[in-house]
Amino acid sequence: MSTRSVTATAPGKINVCLRVGPLRPDGYHDLATVFQAVSLVEEVTATESDGFSVEFSGPIDTAQLATDDSNLAIRAARAVAAAAGIDRGAALHIVKNVPIAGGMGGGSADAAATLVAVDALWETNLGIAKLTEIAASLGADVPFALHGGTAIGVDRGDELTAVPDSAEFHWVLVFAGEGLSTPDVFRELDRQRTAAGLAPESAPRPTVDPVLIDALQRGNPFDVARYLGNDLQPAAVALRPELLDVLEHGIAIGAVAGVVSGSGPTIALLAGSKNDAEQFASDFTDLGDTALAVVSAAPGAGIR
Ligand code: C5P
Which of 32, 120, 197, 205 has its CA 20 to 30 A from that of 229? Predict the structure, then answer.
């Protein structure tokens, strides 16, 4: 008898706009962000097993990733079993395409795809509301990887409002060799704010400009470009000055605009067309960088 397995995918994300508000007593920052899922996905295959395990393949070097119970995908699988009150296990195989610690929510996408894969494997049918609740308990970006598309995120970034009918946009992602730690980047922002005389706890409440949402629905990249922005960018650039060179080179070769994605160091360059995106990706590749043309807004986690 063959062992049952289920494969699910979940997308990486970029933050088209990321506004960071006050540091809260729980150590998180209030955010207002617009996420878009991109066509670079993680693929998780869950196979019936007595216990829980995870292994990786794909283009990303995963040597540094934990494969014990601290791994977010294993925590996701265990959380589904606990919520459903069942005693089952799963062997997870993750084809990893989204860079680690890249600001694209790759670990969150692993967790989101795992939630969907094991829920189907075990036929637990928890439903999207329960899976979203579990997702939020795993990390601030996991609910978005589950839902995909375009969404406004507030609170820790995990209170989502879906934005319907986003047009299609073309981007070039330029990856860095080494990741950046999200807590380090938030800490650097707080340090910069303190140095500028602004107590991190007193930062203004963040908001998303409704004109950006309108521009995303209308589909003109030049309109969207005016509202691209990331409050974490100066912190990411302070920790990794060469990111500025990537942004400047992107504009020099014709990108409409560029922004650090999330806490970086991935740079998302907005292109005017699919052809442009492919050309820019090949220009960066010729320079020895790792770059990829992607499309937004991609769907959320689902069975493949
Ligand atoms: O929840 P997640 O694991 O994605 O967050 C990682 C870290 O990033 C947090 O522990 C916190 O230091 C920082 N963070 C934050 N404010 C947010 C999200 C993340 O300060 N809204």
Answer: 197
